[in-house]
Amino acid sequence: MIPYRRKPFHNVHCPKCGTSPYRLQALPDGLIYKPYLAGPKESRLSGSVFHSHDGGSFYDATLGGRLGLLRFGTQDPIRPQGFQLDAEGSAQVRLDIPDDIDVRSVDFRGGLFTTWGDRYHQTRFGYYHISSHLGDEFLIKYPEFDRVNYSRDVLVLGHTIYLCENLRGYAELGWAFATEVSDPFEFQMGLDYAPNYATGIHGAPFLAINGHLREEINYSGGFNMQTGWAWRSQNNGGLFRIGFHYFNGKSSQYSFFNEHEQYYGFGIWHDR
Asked: What's residue 20's pLDDT?
């Protein structure tokens, strides 16, 4: 008589397709719930130079990213399925190019999310904190500026759906349980068209559109669009993009949250 043996994790199969094995993985490659490509406050590595409608020229950089901590799911780095715990963090800085490339402002963001997804639907729930700070050089040169201590501690619920292999739509609701200057609610939605396969050296086109509405500015906000060329890594699922971007709406730097901006420029972005 053969004794009973408990099956290990790698023998548990995906309930959707019945073939792809689910495994427990620490620090997995790829993300089940991918960042919003045109989301102005996503944690990633990026840099962009742009010219604004009032004649200013700026350099925006985001230094950070998202990292999978633990997954119970498949091992595909590009389109993984299952359950995952993610952490994120970033510094989102703006430099004033003609004004000695001084630091104008910087927003700091950090968070922790639980995510679930199959091949077509993904959901995330979690928490993030964001706070905004003016640059020292800016405060020295403009001491009369009315400084605000903008900060938010937010619970978010988001959902994405793939309309076809390379096109997804998304919507996300955020509610802040602790605020300074800001009000509790925010909402964002958008579309991402980008390669969901390893592109090799040739790459493929991408287009991303995002709308972000915030309660403290009477549910107005910003419209952000990016388009250009993208490359997807076969090894870790990372997406590298270069291209044109356009923004119109209330500032994405929250020290200037109530000021209108319209600008266009060129950027590079990398997401995991």
From this structure: 63
Strands 21-26, 82-96: parallel, antiparallel or unpaired by DSSP?
unpaired
What is the set of domains in the chain, with CATH numbers? Answer: 9-271 (2.40.230.10)
* Cβ neighbours around 263 below 10 Å, total: 18
CB 216 within 8 A of CB 257: yes
Query: Residue 7 pLDDT > 80, yes or no?
Result: no
Contact 34, 162 (CB under 8 A): no
pLDDT of 63 > 60? The answer is yes
Tell me what the pLDDT averaged over the chain comes to.
92
Q: How far is CA 42 from the centre of its chain?
A: 3
Our CA angle for 212, 218, 221, nearest 5°, is 25
